[in-house]
Design a protein that fits this description.
- The protein is of the alpha/beta class.
- It is built from 20 helices and 16 strands.
- The strands form 4 sheets. Strands 13-12-9-16-14-15 form a 6-stranded mixed β-sheet, sandwiched between helices. The protein has a 4-stranded antiparallel β-sheet with strand order 2-3-1-4, sandwiched between helices. A 4-stranded parallel β-sheet has the order 6-5-7-8.
- Helix 1 runs antiparallel to helix 10 and helix 11 runs antiparallel to helix 12.
Length: about 550
């Protein structure tokens, strides 16, 4: 249990971020269950948890790397709280997660600069909470009372009228937030009809409770949905009719753009849909909007700057997936490096987690996919040695929820495809895992990539622009062009035998290359068959599997 702290410093922020993540994880399912506004898609708790996980990860990384090491408490606090806000910004999910990111940014605007001479720590925290609420209201295009914003405003007002140490201020904010949350059904008709309090407000109460705990060492009331006092819940699935009243898609992306361009973007997106929230600053923004034309929302971002990490969710599809009442006996969850591969694995019955270049999947994302699979038994295919840790942590979390999970140590998507080909959902779990593991292990894998710079490899020195042929994870061939390098890789892989070659083409690789390689295989190995797939966006230029 944390000890009471009379001041704000980096250690408090680190403890706060960890406690907030734990609290949101504990309340996630309860918050999901009461999610009816702005869309009854049963994901507010999950979105807040994933946002908090990204935020906590940034704080931990900054502290572990020694970045939070200033010679004064103010400098150290500035580093920590800035990392916390940045992590939430880049990892924000959904309407509630985006607002939480802006609340943390508002606090960082105050706590991330040197304190005013003579200002008490408690008063400084109160000012930070006020700036947080003001920033969140400004970030939402059309603020609505009875929501997370109302709870934030009540917390800020209570903090400003409370004298004393930071722990006393945090306690006042937490108590006021709980009281404000209880009143939300009377302020927002959709909540009153459903008999629930605001889901986003529940999450904010959990975060404020964690702040008080980090400062005081005392644990908040252990209600699974903090601040609850009205009858709860009606399952979100029974509120599915609420989905039909608004836009069909949720669009979220990070955006690198100047502030004047973002002002123009806000006006354009406001005309396209609703639930518009744009948060951030200093050239980096997180954009969230509900629209009927997701392409137009993304195009608006392109005109404003550089959008990336684009996520588009179709509410009707998401609701149907969540409404499955019967838990399946067994499911496969696969982490895949490409949209085409995600489609292939999905057609084979797997639930997928899309991994983008430079964005390894988090344990929370994999755990969420396990929950979406809605099965008593789950086989996890990480498809990369670096992603196995997230898969292992997700498996541990699922086992704690009563799900039987096995992680097959696939190191490439082609090994995963081989495992899926022999998957038998009707057989025994142990036999299925053994068969899938054997199929993956019997598949040698290769990847062709383009060198970004000169470097030393196990095959010699490569120059920027060279094509690298990696076999079983090690550079085995260095070539000038993709076709010639691929042929050299195939020669090495087939030298020890094989019955089936699998080619997965990247998004910019022409079909002619697949034809050339298939003919090359036939010319030297008459008994070997070749199959070709499209990896889609985010996939490597070429993946090769030999079974």
């Amino acid at each position: 249990m944390p000890h009471e702290s009379h001041t704000l410093d980096a250690d408090v922020v680190r403890t706060w971020s960890s406690l907030a993540l734990t609290a949101l994880g504990r309340a996630r399912e309860d918050i999901d269950a009461i999610n009816v506004y702005p869309v009854a898609d049963a994901d507010t708790g999950t979105n807040l948890y994933l946002t908090a996980e990204s935020a906590a990860r940034e704080v931990e990384a900054a502290c572990d790397a020694g970045h939070v090491s200033g010679t004064t408490a103010a400098a150290s606090l500035a580093e920590a709280v800035t990392a916390y806000a940045h992590g939430a910004l880049i990892g924000a999910r959904g309407n509630s997660g985006t607002i939480l990111a802006q609340l943390l940014r508002g606090m960082a605007d105050v706590l991330g600069v040197p304190e005013t001479a003579g200002q008490e720590p408690g008063a400084r925290l109160a000012h930070a909470l006020t700036r947080a609420a003001e920033s969140a209201y400004k970030a939402v295009a059309h603020p609505v009372e009875g929501t997370m914003l109302t709870v934030a405003g009540a917390a800020a007002r209570a903090a400003e009228t409370t004298a004393g140490a930071p722990a006393a201020v945090a306690r006042a904010a937490y108590d006021a937030a709980r009281t404000a949350l209880e009143k939300t059904p009377a302020q927002l008709a959709v909540l009153g009809r459903a008999g629930v309090v605001d889901a986003g407000g529940c999450g904010l109460v959990a975060v404020l409770g964690a702040l008080w705990q980090a400062l005081s060492g005392q644990e908040p009331a252990a209600d699974p949905v903090p601040g609850r006092s009205v009858p709860l819940p009606r399952p979100a699935e029974s509120c599915a009719h609420e989905l039909g009243g608004g836009p069909a898609y949720e669009v979220i992306y990070l955006l690198e753009a100047a502030e004047p361009a973002v002002d123009t973007l806000r006006a354009r997106l406001d005309g396209l849909g609703d639930s518009l929230v744009v948060v951030g600053g200093d050239g980096l923004w997180n954009v969230h909007v509900h629209v009927d034309d997701p392409g137009a929302a993304v195009e608006a971002g392109v005109e404003a700057g550089r959008p990336y990490r684009i996520r588009i969710t179709h509410f009707a599809d998401d609701a149907r997936q969540r409404a499955r009442a019967e838990r399946a006996q067994r499911a496969v969850v696969a982490v895949v490096p490409g949209e085409g591969l995600a489609g292939l694995c999905g057609e084979a019955g797997a639930t997928t987690v899309l991994a983008r270049p430079g964005e390894p999947p988090s344990a929370a994302e994999v755990a969420d996919a396990v929950r979406r699979a809605h099965a008593r038994e789950v086989v996890l295919l990480p498809h990369d040695a670096e992603w196995r840790r997230a898969a292992t942590e997700a498996a541990e979390a699922a086992r704690a929820e009563g799900v039987r999970v096995a992680v097959i140590p696939t190191r490439s998507a082609v090994q995963g495809l081989a495992a899926l080909a022999v998957h038998d959902p009707d057989g025994s779990f142990d036999e299925d895992v053994v068969a899938m593991t054997a199929a993956a292990g019997a598949t040698r894998y290769a990847e062709l990539a383009v060198a970004e710079r000169q470097s030393f490899t196990s095959a010699g020195i490569c120059q920027a622009g060279d094509v690298l042929g990696l076999i079983d994870g090690d550079v085995a061939v260095i070539g000038a062009g993709l076709p010639e390098t691929a042929e050299a890789v195939l020669d090495r892989m087939l030298g020890s035998g094989g019955e089936l070659v699998t080619l997965v083409l990247g998004p910019e690789v022409p079909d002619a290359l697949a034809d050339r390689l298939a003919a090359y295989v036939r010319g030297g190995h008459l008994a070997v068959d070749t199959v070709t797939y499209r990896g889609g966006r985010y996939s490597a230029p070429l993946l090769i599997g030999v079974e």
